[in-house]
Amino acid sequence: MKKRMLTGLAMAAAIAAMLPAAVFAEDQLDKIKEEGKIVFAMEGTWAPWTYHDEDGNLTGYDTEVGRLIAEKLGVEAEFVEGEWDGLFAGLDSKRYDAVINGVEETEERAEKYDFSEPYAYIRTALVVRDDEEEIKTFEDLAGKTTANSFNSTYMYLAQDYGAEVKNVDTLSETIDMLLSGRVDATLNAEVSIYDYLTVRPDAAIKIAALTDDASKVSIPLRKGEESAFLKEAIDQAITELREEGELTKLSEQFFGSDISGAEE
């Protein structure tokens, strides 16, 4: 009996070894469906992407897109707020299932994370005080100081152009540092600056330059087979939301224009 049992176990192990890794890759998506929720990480302080309205409710383009994706998956969306750099640390440690926070897809990030289909396309704005005359292009950042979130796309871009970057947590802090003269400029999403100026039209800032090409905004997931089925499900959800016009509707609601598709 013991010999037969061992033989059976050996056969099971051999069959398991022969099966493709993807067979065992449903863990994350299955876990999400079993628990009935998908946990998204976000800052909650970056309007109009993710922020709290006057009544204290969490909303924004990312937030509402996340809710619709969860609905497509047949689960609830749970949002956990934190500082920018901590979002990825939480994703790495499996505290979150995904990050939805206006994340731009870059080659460096793609080496560590798998990215969903893009759900927005944005350009980067170079912002200065309205009386600034020396900084007119990104190349003019050499030797200047900027304020940006640690480990953000904007921090690295500013450094690439030769600027010294001082780290902050929120866009409001960034603009405050700029207006007080503690930094010379800042980089951020074009749409976020337009939103800031809509709320504060008298703010003494201006956009000095914009990047020529738009960046892809996508949802980063842990890389590997564990997230393969989750990525597939999220990709399908984003595609359906785009085809149904939901992304356009949300984009126009929060940005005043449609940034959900690439420009032709």
CATH superfamily of the largest domain: Periplasmic binding protein-like II
Largest sheet: 3 strands, parallel
Order of helices and strands: HHEEEHEHEHEEEEHEHEHEEEHH
Give the radius of gyration. Answer: 22 Å
Silhouette? globular
Sheet/helix structural class: alpha/beta
Total count of helical runs of at least 4 residues? 10
How many strands?
14
Uncertain spans, ≥5 residues at pLDDT below 50? 1-9, 11-25
Number of domains: 2
Please name the CATH topology of the largest domain.
D-Maltodextrin-Binding Protein, domain 2
Mean pLDDT comes to 90
Portion of residues in beta strands equals 15-25%
Tell me the name of the CATH class of the largest domain: Alpha Beta
How would you describe this structure to a colleague?
The protein is of the alpha/beta class and 264 residues long. It folds into two domains: 139 residues, 3-Layer(aba) Sandwich (D-Maltodextrin-Binding Protein, domain 2); 89 residues, D-Maltodextrin-Binding Protein, domain 2 (3-Layer(aba) Sandwich). It is 41% helix and 21% strand. It contains ten helices and 14 strands. The strands form six sheets. It has a three-stranded parallel sheet. It has a three-stranded antiparallel sheet with strand order 11-8-12. β9, α6 and β10 form a beta-alpha-beta unit. The chain is globular and about 55 Å long. It starts with a helix and ends in a 9-residue tail after the last helix. The N terminus is likely disordered.
